[in-house]
Structures are given as C-alpha cells and as structure tokens.
Amino acid sequence: MRYCRDMHGYGQTPPAANWPGEARVAVQFVLNYEEGGENCVLHGDAASEAFLSEIVGAAQWPGQRHWNMESIYEYGARAGFWRLHRLLTEKNVPVTVYGVATALKRSPAQVAAMIEAGWEIASHGLKWVEHKDMSPDDERAAIAEAIRLHTLVTGERPRGWYTGRCSVNTVDLVAEAGGFDYISDTYADDLPYWYEHGGKQQLIIPYTLDANDMRFATPQGFNSGDQFFTYLKDSFDALYAEGKAGSAKMMSIGLHCRLLGRPGRVMALARFIDYVQSHEKVWIARRVDIAEHWAKTHPPQPLAERPSQMPEDVFVERFGSIFEHSPWVAQRAWADELSPAHDTALGLAAALTFQFRAASEEERLGVLVAHPDLAGKLAQAKRLTASSTEEQASAGLDALTDEERTRFTELNDAYVKKFGFPFIIAVRDNTKASILAAFETRIANDRTAEFATACKQVERIGFLRLKALLPA
C-alpha cells in the first residue's frame, strides 16, 4: 500500500523563510468575494444556499429561492464589501481577494475598486458550490471556465487559486491546468511548500479555517468581535515569537463581506490591523507576493529519488543491506504501507525497524548472526561488506595494536560461545575505547537481556546507515 498523504512535511526543522526586511512573520489578509456566486436557482442550481450565513441551521431548499439567504449574501456585496474596502484601504493593507468568477462578473463596481486599490484578485472557482461530488471531467471544465470568465472580467488571468469547497481532485486539476503561481486548497502548514503532480512542481500556499471570520457562522465559533480579535492576536503573538526565535512563519486571515462586513464585527479587524502595524519586522503582503518571494528564495529542487515510490527491485537493491545480509527486511517494508513520511532517514528506518521487530525471534537471530565480529577474521581478510568496513574503520578497529587485537579476539570468542551471535554495537556512536568498555560490560548480561540489547544496536546501525543515504 502507498499512503499518499504527507504527514511529515518540513519535519522538525522547517526552512528559513527569509521574509523581506528580516520580517518575523508574514501576515496575509484574504477577502473572499462569493456574493452572487452562491447556490441559487437563479444561477441554474438545484437548490438555495445553506453555507456561512447568519441563519442558524440553514438547509438548502430544493427548487426554491431562499429570499432571506439571498438578501444576506446581497448585504455582503452592497454594504459589507465597501465597509471592509474603506478600512483596508485607509490602513494601507495589501489584500488578496478570492473571487468567485460568476460573483465578480455580477459586481463590476466592486471589481473596479479592487483593481484600483492594487489588490490581487485570485480565483475562487467558477461558482461558490460544493465540488466533492463532481467528476474530474466536470471539475476540469469548471476550472477552465472560471479562468476564462475571470480573465474577461478583471482583464488578467488569475495567478492564484482557491476553490474552498473542493474535491480530492481539485489541487491536481488546477496544477494540471497550469499557469498558477500558487494554489491554496490546503491547510497543512504555516509555510508555503512545493507539491509534485505530473512530474512538475506546484507551489502551495496554505490557507486557514481557524483565523477566519467564517467561525462567526459555525458551531463553537466566535460570537463577538472580541473573541475574533483575541484569537487573531494570540495567533500573531505565537508566530511573532517563533519568528523572533529564528523560525519565521506565515499567518493568513480569512474575511467574508457578509460576515466581518457587519458593523458589530468590523472593529475587531480594525483593532487587529492596528496591533499588527504596531510591531516592527512584520511583512503584510498579498499571497502572490509571498509566492514570488518563495519561488525566488526556495525554488523547487530537482525531484529526488523517493523510497516510497521505488519499484520493489530498486528498493531492495538500495536498502536490502541496511539490516546486515537480510534483504527480507526491506522486502517486507516495501510490501507494507509506505508514504512520503518514509522518504527520510528517520522515516525509512522506522519502516524497516517495524518489520525487524515484527519478525520471529529466529528471524531476528538470523540478522544478528549475519553481523561480523568486530575486528575479527573477516575484517582482517577484508571480506566485510562496504558498510561494515567503513563503520569499523571509523572507530579505528582496522588499526589495532597486537594487544588490542588479542583482547578483541578473546572477547569475540567468549561472547559468541555464550550468546550464539556476535557482539554488535553501533560503532559510529563510539570510540575504540568505549566499544571495548561496552564489550567488557555486556558480556556479563544474561542472554535475554543481551539479545534485546543487540537488536537495539542493529536498529541503530540501520538508522546510521540510512542517514548516509537519505535526508534527515
């Protein structure tokens, strides 16, 4: 099984964002413009809208117009947009608009104001509807039509994309369409990242559903502007502190004309903007600006060979010797679930170690027996594997004095006689002196304890070997 989800990402050490001006956080405001693109029988839809409004527990009305719902969306276009536009332009805040193509077409004055303000207008799809049940062909056609309509309405092809109510195919289909600086249909990270599709790499700039005014219209969401402000402030403070400590991130804030455009909520946004602008080293940017920066600072790297995507014969040839002379460990790992999380040294070591631990005691004993003696006859005859030769040499075991060689031989013979397998230790973690000291100590163990200790050392050796082959 190949598990396609990437649960690893950047791991413990994300890349340095290197935001302009040594900014400690990049703050990005998104204004979702959906009014006029929502579900409505006037738009050819089967039912009315039911998502993100003031109507608690709203349900779609099949075949009917929902006058109250329509008027709530109309408020967003007629009043909410202009209230937010005044606030954001007065405070000189760069903005990215997620514009639904059909909604933009129905709002020429608002589009003109966006363009005059220098806001980026990214595509929010053709219509503000669910895509989860669309066939790939239908969704592909909707993406193409959204691009066409957006270009005609705004005068420019969109450089960014966010469907929102997307399907499992959306990101791949938009990447396939091509021509986008970024796609935002993911909430998977605090930094942009590259996504591979069809042998090409597409920049992803994650969006947010938590620092988002949509929570005014969801259960357990915000019920006052103070809650919204506090949540944004806490999010900003956490990210600002991380940036000050050397790990700068990105903060996205999602806004909707019909939600935050209400007078009882808009002042929370005003207070937050003032709070952000009171800090030094903050970069407030459009999403396309972030995309341009990331592509320049962290351009896509050549697609690396990934263990989780290797054919079985290549995988076993490459990793079959990680556990000494025991290719079955790699064969079982390949046959089990692998994912992008296993494309690092730590991840693949976990997959191989899982199979080793799951094996019978007899099989694990076979792995132990396959290991050579330390500084033994095979080493002297230069018959070790390349990995074992390099490992033993790294601790100076290829340059023993006669006295040291005699002592190692005595210990090897006594150890094998007592336990039935050779003494195993991760020599890269040790020196010649510490290896000899461990040898002297561990030979006093009982067999059960020493078998467990030897197995742990085999696992450690495997990890160290993988570190020399794969990224951490």
UniProtKB/TrEMBL annotation:
Taxonomic lineage from the root: Bacteria, Pseudomonadati, Pseudomonadota, Alphaproteobacteria, Hyphomicrobiales
Protein role: Is involved in generating a small heat-stable compound (Nod), an acylated oligomer of N-acetylglucosamine, that stimulates mitosis in various plant protoplasts.
Residue intervals of the NodB homology domain: 67-285
Organism: Shinella zoogloeoides
InterPro entries (alphabetical): Glyco_hydro/deAcase_b/a-brl, NODB_dom, OHCU_decarboxylase, OHCU_decarboxylase-1, OHCU_decarboxylase_sf, PuuE
GO BP annotations listed: allantoin metabolic process; carbohydrate metabolic process; purine nucleobase metabolic process; urate catabolic process
Any one Gene Ontology molecular-function term assigned to this protein's record: hydrolase activity, acting on carbon-nitrogen (but not peptide) bonds
PROSITE patterns: NODB
Keywords in alphabetical order: Purine metabolism
Protein name: Chitooligosaccharide deacetylase
Pfam family, one: Polysacc_deac_1
Name of the encoding gene: puuE
UniProt family annotation: Belongs to the polysaccharide deacetylase family.
